[in-house]
């Protein structure tokens, strides 16, 4: 792929083979491949490159002729997950499976059943296994076992319905959906067992509306989404929904609720509260034959009515006269460099987790900042000026089981690996946004189809949807009230430069001249984040977000943006090795922020001294620590600085903490 002579391009074109096996360890053992977008892009490119070097051959039953002959992840890499290390191994393995399925690989073979590779450096087995040295069947074993069982049932049902087996593409569609969803627990109630119900008896509340919609139907199975709207004036802290199928549908996977079946009645339960006037949603995959007739919903929904809980008292050593029931919502928007990536080993030291580590340290009672912390049996609560800090977003994780993101339950964000400013605008306005030439996708439909795989089920969009900000089922907006404040840190631009340079829309080989075509393209990227003062159309990312929050009666002074410049690239990068485009872009971001500060509460963060060491564009864990310090306290540290984040003695004049302080007063 780098122009060198190898077996793939020097030998394969002269063969007459049916299939080629690819050992994919070169794309599963590097730090950057813990990022799904990086893995997806590079594995897809590798498979396509091998396939393109095969001479054409007719009469084969496969659409693509390259398969994954072996891949795997050593469980020993994930030591800091402790007892849950198998979960990380399973998660990353699923990423390989989903990517290969999406490309069209006919087979995907995991290496290996039992590990015979002892690593003398760490004095233990590497852990490339489905069954470990003690005979324990790991999560990835159970994933394969459950998939094979469900796939066999799918094939049997399909054959009974059609008197034939599905096509390769039909079966691949089923398989891909299976690996993207949660598995229904194997301990399902027997037909004579009553369904699980909330601990306290529930009476019909009469305050719920239910919307049932099939999102995708592939003939023998389907994916559905169900939204429950609380139309009452009080919150529901538990809820239950029931229906009867009119056909022979059978749920196989579900998410965001618990599912039980008894004598043909489906019972859905959840302890996820639904505040008054808001909505919750769950989804599921199911098999069926015959007609996929919508179910008969039994009543509305039942639930336990509650009043909103009172706020805990402040710790005696931290009196705070500002304490109230409102909160400060943090919506992190970015790409894999910041909000979407952790490092291999798949650990809990990613960028967002470091931010919460620093905030927790500042809440120890010794800093000058009005940051408090309270511990409950379920989570660590951090507050600023008495207002709880909570993340919102469209994606959860990735994060380790014991990191600060999990402890504070602040794992939501909108960091989409591989995303550009145009991709984010597609999610804010799927119908209206037009992608300009030079990007990886020509329209929002293709962009959304590509990136939906990274999003939580309820936050996925379509070509005719209205966008994230009006999606009441998504975790982004459903918990926000007019009493809240909102802070939106944004770091975008790295992927814009990558794709624009790759597609020859900009030239990063020379310094950028002010009136050149490259300068115009880079100025356009900046304008997608921050509109110039003369632009009254309101179509930038910050414009759209501010207009929405103001429309739900959040005052302008309670909305703040934190805009970051982007890290520089190493000289090994193939698109901007001398940083001509990156430096020009960062210069324009700084200039636009100073102009926009007259119309928005907008604060700068400078990451321009960061030079990645994980690969040409991605930082390592130490780099994430420095970036988190820069973001939180408005510093401008680089990799050569001592990786120690010292608490400022005063409220900084820029950065995330300054924005939080601004909206909390």
Report on the architecture of this protein.
The chain is an alpha/beta fold. It is 27% helix and 19% strand. It is built from 15 helices and 25 strands. The strands form six sheets. The protein has a seven-stranded mixed sheet with strand order 18-19-20-16-23-24-25, with helices on both faces. Strands 6, 9, 11, 12, 14 and 15 form a six-stranded antiparallel sheet that branches. Strands 7-8-13-10 form a four-stranded antiparallel sheet. Helix 13 links the parallel strand 24 and strand 25 (602-605). Helix 2 packs across helix 3 and helix 6 (351-362) crosses helix 14 (621-633). The longest helix is centred in the N-terminal third of the chain and has 24 residues, at 139-162. The termini are far apart. Mean pLDDT is 81; it is low at 182-205, 306-323 and 340-347.
Can you lay out the helices and strands and say which pair or pack?
Elements: H1 7-10, E1 20-23, H2 36-52, E2 66-71, H3 85-103, E3 108-110, E4 118-119, E5 124-125, H4 139-162, H5 168-180, E6 203-204, E7 208-217, E8 221-230, E9 235-244, E10 250-255, E11 258-262, E12 265-270, E13 279-287, E14 296-297, E15 302-306, E16 327-330, E17 333-334, H6 351-362, E18 371-375, E19 380-384, E20 387-391, E21 395-396, H7 404-407, E22 412-415, H8 421-428, H9 444-451, E23 485-490, H10 494-502, H11 517-529, H12 541-551, E24 559-564, H13 580-596, E25 602-605, H14 621-633, H15 656-664
Parallel strand pairs: 1-2, 2-3, 16-20, 16-23, 17-22, 23-24, 24-25
Antiparallel strand pairs: 4-5, 6-15, 7-8, 8-13, 9-12, 9-14, 9-15, 10-13, 11-12, 18-19, 19-20, 21-22
